[in-house]
Structure formats: structure tokens, C-alpha cells
Amino acid sequence: MPRIIFHIDVNSAFVSWLGVKLVKEGKPDIRLVPSVVSGDPSDRRSIVTAASIPAKKLGIRVPEPVSMALRKCPGLIIMRGDWEWYKQCSEDFIGICRSYSPILQQFSIDECFIDMSLRCTPENAVAVATKLKDHIRNTLGFTVNVGIGSNKLLAKMASDFEKPDKVHTLWADEVPSKMWPLPVRDLLWVGKKTEERLVAYGIRTIGQLAAIGMGSLTRLVGQKFAVQLHENANGRDDSPVETEIAEAKSYSAERTFQTDLVNPKDIDRALFNVACIVAHRIRRDDFRASCVSMFVKYKDFTVAQKQTTLEQPSDVTAIILNAARKMLPEIWDGVTPIRQVGLGVSRLTHESAVQMSLFEDPRMEYYREWDRQFDEDRARYEDARMLAYERKAAPHKDDALVFRYPDGEQALAAA
């Protein structure tokens, strides 16, 4: 049985969803004119977080400053985002998609994959996708693109073809004609730096990337990424559509501040708090994580994020925390106020065997004991406040044990 995967992507989601709300209120539809969404419309230094299709045709891009967008279009309409409304629109959108197939994986707030292998055939897939697309438009008032392919990669690539309100196919036999002529930057997971490196080597199209030898590609991007790029450029992807019914694939926590933070110590304290929560949850569910990710959100709602891979799976708070501490300077300049900080872990395993190292940090037992005490406190007091950097584990001062996570250079060494 051939695999049939749909990727459904809302067209200019944040602008479209605001447009639907304004139309319901009897106001003009901002989707029909050059318009953008920004964290603070009154601040020209704010960043464009979404743009209408007419705005994109004028060269306005995400995430450029509002001041630059206004130079391209002096009459540009600038709107503030409405996150509660976005959440409602997203839930309604996912609900309709799930009615077509229960095998659904939400890829972001405005896009998802559904496995339609048992719901349609290659011959009628376009008709079914068109019905889904029109169902969303007629019921919710906004448009989507639907990409159809024999795997998630091809479906995702197909949905990015001509917009809006379109259905496109990208079957395996269509890869040479539809995908290979595209610029290499259009391939999923190819970022700006990778594109620059490939173009400098003379690789400008996905077809050229598909044809290059693995030895040359490995020297350009490293062995692991080279394998992924080569497979993707040739249209191969065997990853399943992972339903939400499956076991948890990641854990995360975030903290929003009443006032934006700029003090590194305050930000580090918040990072410590969310690391404690995430690590406690994976220990509670008997998981260990191999990947740590973090993000910071600024006052204009732009987000900077980063992830890293641990040397071996861990559930130790100090390991997770210090991995995040290493990444923070790479996504924060140290002076821009931060509205929210978040941390997550993924690539989970139940394996309890931990590879022992002759060079294991001698403080590891100390860290594990700290975690054990923390877990006991959380279990004993469900509504307990987050522990500060320093706390006493015994009731009397004389025999108290003080558990403190190190900071600064000591903390980085612990990772």
C-alpha cells in the first residue's frame, strides 16, 4: 500500500486569523492589502512577525524591523498579535484536519501532517485534499495550502509551492521535475549558513545537491548532516506521522515575567527554575533526554532559540541546566530585555544504563542527591514554591545540608 501524506499549512496564519476576526467585527479585511503583525505597532524598532501576501509581494519579510517594512510600503497596516485568538483558530483548524484522519502530527501552531494512506488513493488524493482545503475555508474563514506526497518531506515541500489556497502534489517520481530545479535554500532544514556553504561550493539547486558525492558533502557539512541532506535532496524520508496518542516525545516548561528582564542573574534564576521543572518531570516518568533546547522571547514577541545534544542521555537537572546556560550567549546579546524564557528536552529514552566515564564530574553524586531531595519535596508538597538557589534539607540549622547549584565557570564545567 503506497503512503499518502498530507501537509496542511495555514496561509499567512497570524495575518489571516486576525483578518477573520476583523471581518467578523465588520471591519476591513487586512489580508487583501499590505499588512503585517508586530509585537508593538507603535515602535518602529519592533519586528515583523507575519506579513500578508500583498505585503510579501512588496518585498516585506519576516523578521525585519517595522521601520524597514515602512520604507518599502509607507501605507503599510501594522497590527498587534492576539495570542488567545490564535490558539482558538489553531484548535479549530486541527480539529477539522483530525476529522479527515486520526493519524495527525501537529508540526506547529499553523501546520500539521496527516497520514491518509487508508483514507484515499493516489488517484483521488487531490480531490480529497481539495475538499479538506475548502472545508477549512468555508467553515473557519481562512485559507490553507495542502501538500501531498509519499512521505512527510515531500508533502511539506509540496505545500510550499504556489500560494494561497492551493493543492500540490510531489510524488517520488515527480522529484526530478518539481523539486530538483528549486534553489537549494528551499530544501527543508537547509538554513542560511548551510546555503552559503553549499553555494560557495557551486551547489545552487536541490538537484545539484542530490547528485554530489557523499565524500564532498561530508567535508562541507559533516558526516551526520551530509547523510540527512543527501536523503532529503533525493526525496527520501521514512519518518512516521507521530500521533499525539503516542508516548510523550518531549517535555518543556517556560516562564513569563511581569516586567522584562535584563539582569543576567535574574535570567539565570528563571532558567534554573524551568530546568528544575523539566528535569523533575522526566525523572517522574522514568525518562532520560539526549537533546536540550531553549528559547527566549523578547518584548516584541520575536523568539530566538537553540538546541544541543548531550554526550549521553541524562535526567540530572545540573546537566540539563548547564547545557542551556552554554546556549544562552548564542541567542541573547546580554542587553536586550527578555519577556519569557523556556527550556525543553527531547529524544527521550527509558534506558537506565549510563555509560560510565573515567572523567565523570566528581560532583555528579552531589547533583543526583540534590535532585532526589527536590523530587521528594515536590511529591510531598504539590503546591510547593520553586526552590531558590540555596535551600536547607534538614529542619535544624546545625545539621542542615545546603544544596546549591554552582554558577559561572563552575557551572559550565559541570556540563
Alpha-carbon distance between the two ends: 47 Å
Can you tell me the overall shape?
globular
Share of helical residues: 25-40%
Topology as a string of helices (H) and strands (E): EHEEHHEHEEHEHEHHHHHEHEEHEHEEH
Low-confidence stretches: 352-360, 381-415
The largest pleated sheet is described as: 5 strands, mixed
Strand arrangement, largest sheet? 5-6-1-7-8
Question: Please, could you describe this protein's structure?
Answer:
This protein is α+β, with helices and mostly antiparallel strands and 415 residues long. The protein has 15 helices and 14 strands. The chain has helices at 13-24, 53-57, 66-72, 83-100, 125-140, 152-159, 175-179, 192-200, 206-211, 214-221, 223-233, 264-284, 317-331, 364-380, 408-414, and strands at residues 5-10, 35-38, 48-51, 77-80, 104-108, 111-115, 144-149, 167-170, 250-261, 288-298, 303-314, 338-349, 390-392, 402-404. A five-stranded mixed β-sheet has the order 5-6-1-7-8. It has a four-stranded antiparallel β-sheet with strand order 9-12-10-11.
Structure in a nutshell:
By secondary structure, the chain is of the alpha+beta class.
What's the structural blueprint in terms of helices and strands?
Layout: E1 5-10, H1 13-24, E2 35-38, E3 48-51, H2 53-57, H3 66-72, E4 77-80, H4 83-100, E5 104-108, E6 111-115, H5 125-140, E7 144-149, H6 152-159, E8 167-170, H7 175-179, H8 192-200, H9 206-211, H10 214-221, H11 223-233, E9 250-261, H12 264-284, E10 288-298, E11 303-314, H13 317-331, E12 338-349, H14 364-380, E13 390-392, E14 402-404, H15 408-414
Parallel strand pairs: 2-4, 7-8
Antiparallel strand pairs: 1-6, 1-7, 2-3, 5-6, 9-12, 10-11, 10-12, 13-14
